[in-house]
Structure formats: C-alpha cells, structure tokens
Amino acid sequence: MKQPIIKLKFDQKLDQGLAWSFYSNQEFGGCNFWEERALKHHPKLIEIKSAKNQKKFLYKYIIDFYKFNNGEIKALSKNTIEYLNQEQDKFFLVVDKLFKGHPWPRKKFIGYFSIFDFCPRFIDSDEFQVFIYDSRDLQLFTIFSEMLHFIFYDFAQKNFPETKKMNTEQGKLWNIAEVFNAVIQNTNDFISLHGKIKNIEYPYHKKLILQGSILWKKYPDAHNWIKEMLKLV
After folding, report:
1. Nearest-10 Cα torsion for 22, 128, 36, 173
2. How far apart are CA 143 and CA 111, in angstroms?
3. Whose CA is closest to 138, among 157, 119, 166?
4. How far apart are CA 76 and CA 63, in angstroms?
5. The predicted structure's pLDDT at residue 30
6. 10 pLDDT higher than 90
7. Confidence of residue 70 (pLDDT cuts 50, 70, 90)
8. Residue 224 pLDDT > 90, yes or no?
C-alpha cells in the first residue's frame, strides 16, 4: 500500500473558529470539552463569562497567545514533526496489515497545531488538529488515532454498504469507530509507537470497549471485527 503524506502546520483562524464552537457547544461524548480541554490549559479564559463581547474576547486572547508565545510554539511544532517522522513508517506498516492493504482515501492529510486540547477531526476533508502542548506520546496517539479514523471509515463504507448512510459524528458507526481505535491503540503494535495511553476513551464507551476487546481476540481482523460489531451495537 502506498503511504500518504501527513502535513503538519498552523492555522490560527481555524483555532479561533473551533475554540468558539467548543465554547458555544461544550458537551460532547459525555465530556465537557471547554472545562477539561480549554480552561485547564488557559485559566484566564474563565473571564469570558463576564466579557461584553465573548467572541471578540476569545479571538483576542488567541491572537495575543500566538503573538507572545510564538517562539515556544514554533519550537514545539518542530519537535512534533520530528516525532512523527520517527514513527510514521512503522505506523503505515501496521495499518497496512490491519486493513489488508486497503488504500488510503487520500494522498495527503493535514494536521493543524492547536493551543487547545480539543483535537477534532474532519472526515470530509481528511484534516485534524493536534495539541501543541501535549507530550510526545499523546501527540503521536492523537495523530495516529485520527489517521485510523480516516482509513476506518473509508474501509467500512466500501466493504459494508449499509454504513454509507450512517453518521460519522454520532450514532452506530461513530461508536464503532471510536471503540475500534480504543481497542487497536491498546495493542502491542500501537503501544510500541506511542506508549500505553490511559483514560482516553469517552466515558460511555467503556462497556463497548470491553466487548470490542473480547471480539478482537476472537476476530483479530478489521473486516470480521466490524462485521460482528455492526451486529452488536
């Protein structure tokens, strides 16, 4: 299978727009993204509640943060790119084995550095975000997790026609995709890439992850595992 390119870069305006989106809609998957992934790292943003123009306040905070921490942020981004360069070839080999040579849906994927720990991904454009202040292992976990999502959805939709009409942001297929990552990224192949990462699942997926782990031991093959999970979920 031909390897795609993973390009990592900055987009400050995307950071602004997504921060406002997560502030406006804070709950997702049983987590409060604003409190846990914004305020935890940027406590000054608690002041947004009393701001006359909350969007303007948030945008100015982000502009100033990038401006005054520019050197640090750029240095951290270089580290992340180096981490990825060290491990991506091994990652692609593992994925090739997982999906039996299924081709990647695009030749190029883009990851945007973010000063927030939201780490969303966009299936339609094959883009995602990675938290600039995360540790090496967590950054690699995020990048590889989003890349797994991109090939997982493409593989599922091409091998299981009923999934083409399923929502990739909520519901049955989304649940299965999240569980797949939680199960697969806890296998030895992935632990060797980014270490063992704890407490990364959505709270209400715990039972499904246990079931998915049992299924993987019985069907250690993406096609058969998805087939059985579609019956189960």
Report:
1. 90
2. 8
3. 119
4. 18
5. 65
6. yes
7. very high
8. yes
Residue 206 confidence (pLDDT): 84
Residue 46 CB-density burial (10 A; 0-12 exposed, 13-18 middle, 19+ buried)? exposed
Joined tokens for residue 58? 């948030």
Q: Give the span between the Cα atoms of 188 and 175, in whole angstroms.
A: 23
Q: What is the model's pLDDT at position 28? A: 67
The CA R_g of the chain, rounded to the nearest whole Å, is 18
Per DSSP, the three-state class of 109 is: strand
Q: What is the per-residue burial (b if ≥16 Cβ within 10 Å, else e) of 94-124? A: bbbebbeebebbeeebbbbbbbbbbbbbbbe
pLDDT in tens, 107-140: 999 999 999 999 999 999 999 999 999 999 999 9
CA distance 24 to 75: 31
CA distance 60 to 85: 34
Distance CA 117, CA 40 (A): 9
DSSP state of 3: -
Give mean pLDDT, residues 174-182.
95
